[in-house]
Amino acid sequence: MPCKAYILSVIAMNVFAARRLAPILKTAVLGACCFALICFSQSCAQGVKSGIELCLNVLVPSLFPFMTVSGLIVKYGAAKRAEKLFMKPTKLIFGLDGSFAPVVLLSLIGGYPVGAKGISELKRQGADNSQCQKAAMLCVCAGPGFLINYVGVFIYGSKRLGIIMYTAQVLSVIIIGVGAKLFYKSNKDFYFEAKRISHNISFADALTEAVFDSAKAMLSICAYVILFSGITAILQSVAKTNGLSCMTACLLEVCSAVNLMSNKMTIEAVAFAAGLGGLCVHFQIFSTLNGIKVNKLLFFTIRIIQGALTALITHLGLIVFPEARPVFSSAQGKPSICFGTNAASGIVLILTSILFLFSIISLKRR
User: Which three-class secondary structure string do you get for the chain?
Assistant: First the structure.
């Protein structure tokens, strides 16, 4: 007993000491960050510039329309109306309420933070908190615009490769969803009554709110991308080896990771980076969830599993379609910007600008 008491007292003292040292360590880290910004100001500025270009040419055209549609579907009550239709397949595969089906679908089509936006809206309308937390773990996927157009066509010059990677990403989400359902078995009825506002709101008001909320979420997402682009540039300046540089980019920011890894590592490694998403995407999702608490360690662990599954399924896809193998060794030439040089992207930008102006005018009239 005395020995056990001594051990417990030592552990308690160490925990107490760690808590006392935490503010000092945080201050030291912040000081190191400031020092790094001064020493590597040029690299940071270049990274921030790349992040801004990435937001304007890739993220806004590809994410904003889908985020708006996702919010509109939930605000106008379409998700609730689709509950009965999708109740059985959604519960069978993911163990989620049927009203989450449109959100799951939009997350697979729209990209990383679109699902979190829809989940946040469902929670606001009264969805079960545990269901929202579970959906937040599952509705994380790189969209077809990013994987097919950006990674496949513009980086590797192969649309088929992009389709293989996107298919692998979707299958990894489904596998994780089935595994989560088996792990979290419950007989609870997750049906919820949406707040009355979702039934009385007009389409114009729902559209206005969806555009305005998506614009705020898009601003937060772009801010994270710009910040992490600068941090990634600094760390890549410090990194002495290609492997360390690729690992740093993979952990922090997915767009920088696929650009860097495509020239130095295998396509399976790029697929893993897309499945992992990086801390920048994770913080985007946490901010978009608007107060829905998730276990961040579990979330990151699931993303590692998703990255591994995406890499494995991509590898199997390369075996099934061997004729596409010559483009997989490395990227050819300098990666191009994928959404800024075609008519479709211009139309999307014009429409989103009009919708945003319409939302501001409507809000001012209230």
Answer: CHHHHHHHHHHHHHHHHHHHHHHHHHHHHHHHHHHHHHHCHHHHHHHHHHHHHHHHHHHHHHHHHHHHHHHHHHHCCHHHHCHHHHHHHHHHHCCCCHHHHHHHHHHHHHCCCHHHHHHHHHHHCCCCHHHHHHHHHHCCCCCHHHHHHHHHHHHCCCHHHHHHHHHHHHHHHHHHHHHHHHHCCCCCCCCCCCCCHHHHCCHHHHHHHHHHHHHHHHHHHHHHHHHHHHHHHHHHHHCCCHHHHHHHHHHHCHHHHHHHHHHHCCHHHHHHHHHHCCHHHHHHHHHHCCCCCCCHHHHHHHHHHHHHHHHHHHHHHHHHCHHHHHHHCCCCCCCCCCCCCCHHHHHHHHHHHHHHHHHHHHHHHC
Q: Are 178 and 39 spatial neighbours (Cβ–Cβ below 8 Å)?
A: no
If 0-12 CB within 10 Å is exposed, 13-18 middle and 19+ buried, where does residue 109 land? middle
pLDDT tens, residue by residue, 37-50: 788 888 888 989 98
- 251-265, 292-306, 316-330: which range is least confident on average? 316-330
Q: Cα separation of 143 and 62, whole Å? A: 9
Which two three-digit tokens encode residue 124? 């606001």
